[in-house]
Amino acid sequence: MQALETDWTDVEKNVAQTAFNKAYERELTGLMQAVRESSNQIEKPDDLWRLHDLLSAKRHEIDGKYDYRYPALMFVFAGLVKEGWLSIDELNGLQSNKVAKILALSRM
Amino acid sequence: MQALETDWTDVEKNVAQTAFNKAYERELTGLMQAVRESSNQIEKPDDLWRLHDLLSAKRHEIDGKYDYRYPALMFVFAGLVKEGWLSIDELNGLQSNKVAKILALSRM
Asked: Where are the alpha helices (DSSP H) in chain A?
């Protein structure tokens, strides 16, 4: 299931990098918006620590999730499709067997 | 220099608890305001992680600083006076030797 870097053509690498960046930007834009809204509702210390907990969890999750290494990339994309940060159509340009695998993984 | 719980009269305990709470409330109110302002200026992921770093550092610092145990309390008050979260006048009601020690420590 793993695909080495040599299994990705230059065209595929461009598609993959663009899709990866797009998902990252979407997720981060959403998080930035949530943090701004949550911050404006801070009224007591517990609200502050709850925001800190949220940021700690999200930073850890995002650091782990956005791992642009070719052997992991199909799993990464499957996760992003599953979570809704990426549409499978945005992977058009990848070889069809890769897209099929990503789609199958995203439904597991 | 340490004062055990038995060295604090009931009146002193009340004064100490009130002063301690007041300093905590001031520092947290300032931090909540800073976080609200900083959140409204978040434009890119780095801003988000900088806010997270600030909250991590402040939470750690505040957890360590606001230690209401009698043997540590004069050091705690000295630190709060030094940092400006508490005025020495707000410790009126403590025995004068305690106030003098706190003042001396706050100037070290």
From this structure: 10-40, 45-65, 70-83, 96-106
The tokens describing A75, both together, are: 């799993």
Domain that holds residue B45: 5-106
What's the distance, CA A19 to chain centroid? Answer: 9
Condensed to tens digits (0 to 9), the pLDDT of residues B1-12 reads: 566 778 899 999
pLDDT tens digits for range A13-59: 999 999 999 999 999 999 999 999 999 999 999 999 999 999 999 99
Q: Give B52's contacts in chain A (Cβ within 8 Å).
A: 52, 55-56, 59
ipTM over 0.90: no
Domains contained in chain B, number = 1
Most A CBs within 10 A among B21, B33, B51, hence the mutation to make, goes to B51
Q: What are the chain B neighbours of A59 within 8 Å (beta carbons)?
A: 49, 52
The answer to whether the CB atoms of B48 and A35 lie below 8 A apart is yes
